[in-house]
Design goal:
The chain is of the alpha/beta class and 423 residues long. The chain has helices at residues 15-25, 33-46, 57-67, 85-92, 111-117, 137-146, 198-209, 216-232, 235-238, 242-251, 256-261, 273-277, 283-313, 343-352, 379-387, 399-415, and strands spanning 50-54, 75-79, 81-82, 96-100, 122-125, 150-154, 162-163, 166-167, 173-178, 191-195, 329-330, 336-339, 363-364, 388-391. Helix 1 (15-25) runs antiparallel to helix 8, helix 13 packs across helix 16 and helix 14 (343-352) packs across helix 16 (399-415).
Length: 423
């Protein structure tokens, strides 16, 4: 820990991956056969029959819906607290997103809320393993089987997490993952879909194979960004470069990190050209992914150690609610999300102690202007969105930093008025 300043995240991208990037980018993208190798190794790691690299998780979801022939007149159930691109892609596929509530502190789909949302038009459900926490997949699969509903697991924040010993993505029949620079495993950009259905896999692969390759220069830019993130979040650099910029930005009512990695919420009238025309992954992306697969258990293990320490250290702080986990879930702690009724004041108090936090990129979409035609009461989603705050839990934290955070969160919570943030 350098001068008590702790970044909200630190990338899994390291000098080892940077060297791989340099080697393959000199060959203008790397060997195509590495893509097939990564797809095979990744699907084997998950325990799925097929894996196909795709340019983004949202496009992967769109391709899975198409592959399952889900479209006009169909309904797809999604959690109320989720990322805007999920219901947006459901709409683009021609189907209707139906929101169902979450567990207040698990942040994942409530099986009974899923059951209540089912109609005769329901074709699929998307249990999102949000913040790295697996859903109650036994209950979800049982309900889905009763109604002949396809289960598409959203593993965008949970690669490597387990539910009763099985990795998420291998439990519901179909899944999608994302490999951006801020995720627990990266391929610079891009994503993966897995499925146990031969026909669905073939349809998706045909679509990808009919497209052009991803942009080499975009991959090079992402590699440079990854290197910059690695340096900027290093303890010897962060305290005097990034942290002061965050403090200054916050004083001006801005969040420079959120603005850099977030995006404007929107719907889609068509598949973006970049997905449609440049869907084939590059060898350099697969090469980085293969290296990351070698490290994923170590990276996730560090997250889990940090998360469990936060679980124990913050379990009984008055006024602070810590995460809960469905029985049988083995979270990877992609995020450690606490609840406080005055989370902005708590974030400011933590910032003064050198701990950077964020409210993240999820939203309560069950009551959102973009999806006003599909409004549905999801009180837990609304309450969670108003109170949640992400505490750093990334794998590059040292034990002293975790201990500093626990003491900082304790002290900041005790000095923060829980009522002044209520409207």
């Amino acid at each position: 820990m350098a001068f008590g300043k702790i970044p909200r995240f630190s990338p899994s991208f390291s000098p080892s991956e940077a060297l791989i990037c340099a080697t393959h980018l000199l060959g203008m993208g790397g060997r195509d056969d590495l893509v097939e190798e990564f797809e095979s190794r990744f699907s084997s790691y998950i325990g799925a029959k097929h894996g196909v690299m795709v340019p983004s998780a949202r496009y992967g979801l769109f391709l899975l819906l198409n592959g399952l022939e889900i479209g006009e007149g169909d309904e797809v159930i999604v959690p109320g607290l989720t990322y805007f691109a999920i219901p947006a892609m459901i709409e683009l596929a021609g189907a209707k997103p139906v929101f169902a509530d979450i567990g207040l502190h698990t942040h994942v789909l409530d099986p009974e809320a899923f059951r209540e949302a089912i109609t005769e038009r329901t074709r699929a459900v998307i249990p999102t393993h949000l913040f790295g926490t697996p859903c109650d997949m036994d209950a979800i699969n049982e309900i889905a089987a009763e109604h002949d509903i396809e289960v598409i697991e959203d593993c965008a924040q949970s690669t490597g997490a387990r539910y009763k010993g099985k990795k998420v993505g291998s439990i519901g029949g179909h899944a999608y993952y994302t490999f951006g620079l801020t995720k627990n495993i990266t391929t610079l950009s891009g994503a993966m879909v897995t499925t146990d259905d031969d026909a669905v896999a073939n349809r998706i692969r045909e679509t990808i194979n009919s497209s052009g390759k991803a942009n080499v220069w975009k991959a090079a830019k992402e590699a440079m960004t990854g290197c910059a993130m690695f340096v900027a979040t290093h303890p010897l650099m962060y305290w005097w470069t990034v942290h002061p910029a965050i403090v200054l930005g916050n004083a001006m009512g801005k969040d420079p990190i959120h603005e850099r990695f977030g995006e404007e919420e929107r719907t889609y009238e068509a598949v973006p050209d970049g997905y449609k025309n440049h869907a084939k992954a590059l060898g350099v992306q697969a090469a980085v992914g293969l290296k990351q697969l070698d490290r994923i258990e170590s990276l996730n293990g560090a997250r889990m150690r940090n998360g469990r320490a936060l679980d124990a250290g913050l379990a009984h702080v008055p006024g602070l609610d810590v995460p809960a986990y469905p029985e049988g879930s083995e979270p990877i702690y992609m995020s450690f999300v606490v609840h406080h009724p005055n989370r902005d004041a708590l974030a400011a108090a933590l910032r003064s102690r050198g701990v950077d936090t964020t409210t993240g990129y999820m939203n309560n979409l069950s009551d959102h202007p973009l999806f006003s035609a599909h409004r549905r009461p999801c009180p837990n989603s609304a309450k969670a969105m108003a109170e949640l705050l992400h505490i750093p839990v990334h794998p590059n934290l040292r034990q002293a930093e975790v201990e500093h955070m626990i003491e900082s969160v304790r002290a900041a919570t005790l000095e923060t008025d829980p009522n002044s943030g209520l409207s």
